[in-house]
Amino acid sequence: MNYFLPAQIAAQLLSLLVFGTMARWYVAPRLAVLPRADALIPLLWIHVFRYIALQAFSAQRDGFPVSDGHLLHIVIGDLLGAGIALVTIFALRFRLRAGIILTWVLVVTTIYDTVTNIQGGAQEQLLGKASGVTWLVLGIYVPLLLVSVIMLVWQLYTRRGEALDSAGTPAAPRRAAVLRTS
């Protein structure tokens, strides 16, 4: 029996569970006390490293059976996502409203990229064939990206009427309360 596919799926599900738990217990309470822009920025930094998809070129060379077309789709989508994330961070640091729009663009393009990569991987029968760094990316980093997208949507939706530079209530007392519980 080939254990690669169940191992990859198990790693992805366990990573989703672990990152989801961390997000709920530790990240969400910290983000709640930050101004809106400052709460979005750490979630965006996770996406800046999507250029790790460039390793797929060496994975293909070393035997990962991905077609050139699908490989380019993966790399271009992730480089685009990394670029959007970095530009969005700068926009939010300068408190530009475009940062909110760019965050939504990143969310939508990441969801599209994820769905099309899963479809392409299924069509090329790549599921369970990853190894080495590719396996780690799929088993750990991709679930982290998905959890961050969920957190971004949560921040964007629940704080939609809030200004970029204020958390809606005085920030200093709320921060102090969180620090005391740490």
Task: Kindly describe this structure.
With 182 residues, the chain is mostly helical. The protein has one domain (4-177). The protein has helices spanning 4-32, 36-48, 55-61, 68-93, 98-123, 132-158, 171-181. It is globular and about 55 Å long.
State the end-to-end CA separation: 47 Å
Structural class by helix and strand composition: mainly alpha
Report the count of strand segments.
0
Strand content is under 5%
Overall body shape? globular
Taken together, the total number of domains comes to 1
Report the uncertain regions: 168-182
Which percent range fits the helix content? over 70%
Could you give a short description of this structure?
With 182 residues, the chain is mainly α. The protein is built from seven helices and no strands.
Lay out the secondary structure.
Elements: H1 4-32, H2 36-48, H3 55-61, H4 68-93, H5 98-123, H6 132-158, H7 171-181
Helix pairs in contact: 1-6, 2-4, 2-6, 4-5, 5-6
Brief descriptors of the model:
182 residues, mainly alpha, 7 helices
